Amino acid sequence: MTSTSVPIGVTVNGTDHEFAETLTVRELLSRLELPCQGIALAVDGAVFPKSRWDEPVGRGWQIEVLTAVQGG
């Protein structure tokens, strides 16, 4: 039996990653050992709301994980 699946390639914070299986955004964060609390996500330059984190990651997405920083 041969697999015809194509790896999913995404960029997270400027680093390229490939995954053999489809992952949700939440699973991607876990796999990369990134927090799911206290962050915001941008996908291809647009805010990606937490209500959509259970959707599959799209091939070629450019994801930025943003954390709040205190200061003044």
From TrEMBL:
InterPro entries linked to this entry: Beta-grasp_dom_sf (IPR012675), Mopterin_synth/thiamin_S_b (IPR016155), Thi_S (IPR010035), ThiS/MoaD-like (IPR003749)
Pfam families membership: ThiS
Signal sequence bounds: none
Protein name (record): Thiamine biosynthesis protein ThiS
Lineage: Bacteria, Bacillati, Actinomycetota, Actinomycetes, Mycobacteriales
